[in-house]
Amino acid sequence: MGTSLVFKDTSRSLVQRILLVHNELTEFVRLDLEELRKHFYVTERFESARVFNPFALWRQVKDHDLVLGWFASWHTFLPLEFARLQRKPSVLIIGGYDVADMPEIDYGHQRGGFKKWVSRRMIRSATRLVTNSNYSLQEIKRNLEFTNGSVRMVYHGVPDRFGQLPRAGREKMALTVGNVDRSNLQRKGHEAFVRAAALLPEVNFVLVGSWRDDAIEFLRSIATPNVTFTGRVTDEVLLECYRKASVYVQPSLHEGFGMSVAEAMLAGCVPVTTGAGALREVTGDSGVEIDSTDASEIARGIQEALCFSNEARATIRVRILENFPLANRSAQFAHLIEPLLNGHRTN
Predict the structure, then answer these.
(1) Considering Cα of 102, then 28, then 326, then 35, what sign does the dihedral take?
(2) CATH code, 101
(3) Which residues have C-beta within 8 Å of that of residue 315, sequence separation ≥ 6?
């Protein structure tokens, strides 16, 4: 059943109540939750299963002034429908699997069927729509025939947990982060990343992420001795991986933003990325852009990135600090939500 986690900020009188619904507490969801709690009373509803009590959910929506959902999928369908029926405002954050249509990699709700119907109904019934990159704006326009004026783009905010970069040399290590599952073998380029390790035996390849299905067994079967699969790690261990790595690799075929890329750049890693999705919006002219997801092209990109100086790494870090401050996203969300809570629904 869905669970509700409540946090009350006792430092001020908060009477405006938001119900935030998600199906996984990813880093970007967690950051939004923390920032919203600085301004509002927020109840977190984590839907961990598709079977839950609709009567309890109806009452929960009734007890709140606004519903905010992350992604247009099964877990946000009833919360947003109940908000509409109760004439409560809703905000839906979209941009990822819910708006993608990529049959070539078996990815995206817009490929057709029931998932497409559910996601489109929710997107059309939400009071406000938000997405996280200009790429997602164009994808929404292309796949759902929405004009850009229908959706507000607000970049993710990336908090700085690293501070000044160390002067000491970094390990000869290439890092990538993401859930290890069948879908991500191609979409995140995990298979190609592991195969590239055979071409650079002197470089340590590290893949950090939860093992979701049998994809880990496949990756182990093709891995050379210089590949490490950590599984899920603590935040502290992940930050240490970012600090140690020389290169961060994201050979994706689709990215709605690229949060891990931005975090790695803040830590001084040189990004090696494709030009897919919103990755160019994150990296700009920093790092190395590869022309394909072939293992040989990934290996070439890593070799080039290993030659970057400490000064270049500092410049890469500054790009994230200047373009994706957490305060910007927090302020824009408050500006978006407060009029809805006060009964004003102008754009």
Answers:
(1) positive
(2) 3.40.50.2000
(3) 286
User: E strands, 178-224, where?
Assistant: 204-208
Together in a domain, 10 and 43: yes
Asked if residue 27 has pLDDT above 50, the reply is yes
Q: What is the per-residue pLDDT across 173-192, written as a single tens digit (0 to 9) for each?
A: 999 999 999 999 999 999 99
The total of structural domains in the chain comes to 2
Output the CA torsion 122→96→23→12 (10° steps): -80
Per-residue model confidence as pLDDT tens digits over 116-145: 999 999 999 899 999 999 999 999 999 998
Q: Do 143 and 46 share a domain, yes or no?
A: yes
Cβ proximity of 122 and 92 under 8 Å: yes
Rounded (10°) CA dihedral 221, 224, 227, 229: 20
Q: What is the pTM of this model?
A: 0.91
Q: Is 15 exposed, middle or buried (0-12, 13-18, 19+ CB in 10 A)?
A: exposed
Whether residues 330 and 298 share a domain: the answer is no
| C-alpha span between 194 and 190 (Å, rounded) | 6
Contact (Cβ atoms closer than 8 angstroms) between residue 80 and residue 90? yes
C-alpha–C-alpha distance, residues 191 and 180, integer Å = 10
DSSP 45: E
Please state the three-class secondary structure of 80-142 as a single string: HHHHHHCCCCEEEECCCCCCCCEHHHCECHHHCHHHHHHHHHHHHHCCEEEECCHHHHHHHHH
The CA dihedral of 237, 241, 242, 246, to the nearest 10 degrees, is 170
Beta-carbon contacts of residue 215 (< 8 Å; ≥ 6 apart): 180, 181, 182, 184, 185, 190
